[in-house]
Design brief:
alpha/beta, 13 helices, 12% strand, Rossmann fold, three-stranded antiparallel sheet, 7 strands, 304 residues
């Protein structure tokens, strides 16, 4: 893959600052309703969305490309590794991090250099996706997770990536859009826009995965996913992939196989229902009202 070098020049007037009365500040760069960390761009971690997103719209897509679409902390790392193993027909970890195949964190030149078969992953909303993704009806895997667990995991993620220093309750005020736009985008808006697209385009091949189902019965979900990808996957391979992609094994592989930064791990607990250890009764009631005001079509079989 080409060396990833990005322009770190950012105009001060382009930086969107979202703050609360406790001194917590988030700084973003925006394009198409997507909010990316300004500091991440300035540090050269990924390209400026204001210039890169329009170019992503025009990038070349191959008909056999797979796309993994998920809100942050819904299970992107986990599912991407499983999909990569299914494509390679072996329970061996992909040598690269999933960020190397992530749309918003790369330029078209870098992404187009990836050899097929390719599994791209993204947190982008539909309006920011490459046009050829729609034109070529690329197979899409859409992952969803209990939004309360998403919020908890996203809080710890933001503590690491954008150095959010506030409490969980203070973070939830940001998550519920009380102070302005949300990092990446608001969960209900992201979910609703993808639901709307798939409903209005029934000819677009999409496979839905619930994070909780994947954790409860990984072998069955892996075989179901393989069938969608039109790849063979017997019980032996499915069990091998499930073992290699268990939470602890993936966390270890992130450090050993992929050379991860031990100071910044994207793997925390991976538990279902951890939100109960973070939400107060009052916050839970408030967030329920927020979800009720921003209803999605997703039906949860798990307590929210």
């Amino acid at each position: 893959m080409p060396e990833r070098r990005y322009d770190t020049e950012v105009s001060e007037e382009d930086i969107i600052k979202v703050s609360d009365s406790h001194g917590n500040v988030m700084e973003f760069l925006e394009h198409g309703g997507q909010y990316i960390s300004a500091k991440g761009v300035i540090m050269g971690k990924f390209p400026n969305p204001k210039t890169n997103f329009p170019r992503l719209k025009e990038m070349n897509i191959r008909s056999d490309d797979f796309f993994l679409c998920a809100y942050p902390k819904a299970g992107t790392h986990w599912t991407w590794e499983i999909m990569s193993m299914i494509l390679q027909q072996t329970a061996e970890y992909h040598p690269l991090k999933k960020e190397t195949h992530m749309l918003e964190f790369n330029t078209p030149e870098v992404l187009e250099s990836v050899t097929s078969p390719r599994v791209f992953n993204t947190h982008l909303r539909p309006n920011n996706m490459p046009q050829q993704f729609f034109d070529k009806h690329c197979k899409t895997v859409f992952v969803q997770r209990n939004p309360k667990d998403v919020a908890v995991s996203f809080y710890y993620h933001c503590m690491q990536t954008i150095k959010f220093c506030g409490t969980f309750i203070q973070f939830m005020d940001f998550f519920m859009e009380k102070h302005g736009p949300v990092y990446h985008s608001a969960w209900p808006l992201y979910t609703l826009e993808w639901e709307k697209y798939f409903k209005e385009h029934p000819d677009h091949p999409v496979h839905y995965i619930m994070y909780e189902d994947l954790q409860q019965d990984p072998v069955s979900e892996i075989k179901r996913l393989a069938a969608f990808m039109d790849k063979p996957c017997d019980d032996q391979l499915a069990n091998q992939i499930a073992e290699k992609c268990s939470f602890q094994n993936l966390k270890t592989a992130s450090d050993t196989v992929k050379g991860g930064d031990r100071s910044m791990s994207f793997y925390r607990k991976g538990k279902v229902g951890d939100w109960k250890n973070h939400f107060t009764v009052a916050l839970n009631e408030e967030f329920d009202q927020y979800l009720q005001q921003h209803k999605t079509d997703t039906v949860y079989k798990y307590e929210i």
